[in-house]
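Quick one:
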Amino acid sequence: MSTTSAILQWIDSMHEPNWGYVIYRCTYGDDDAWNKTFARVRTHVERSLKREEHGEKALEKLDWVVQESVELGGADTQEIRRRFNDLCNSWHKSEGFGTRYEICLIVDDESMKSILARSPEEDERDGPRRSPAFLKAVDRKYSPDESYDNETYTGEMKVTAYALPRLYVLALDEGMATWYPGQGVTFRKY
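Output:
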């Protein structure tokens, strides 16, 4: 089943109006750079979706929930995980409601620099496989007290924006830990 078909099937089966990620902005001081970064992320996800059948429909249902507050500047993964748990609990969403409520994204200084390192023209020319750009995905359910198949799993990983739709679907079935590529390695499954 294609990524877009799986997303649309999930929306239908869970009676959700849309799909997407909660994204935490953890870098402040340059609003123009943030705007360019988020626009680039949206463009990569749009390109990823449009290459598949039903891509336009999946794109129409995509909803980004951006969490912005200067107090998030420099926040670490544990703080974001805590805030994401609080947000999901306020929505009355617990485990089993899908990726939207199990994985959030972080844009911090490191990921913003990686996204803006190349021009949009370079991204277009070279495609997503050669891009160094990444966001950080955070697993809401991660606990350092649990054991995981991959002993290096830390509950977070780098992921290209282009791979976000695929991660969404893969994590629906098996969770983020199953698809962890290793420390310092960026998830690039398309």
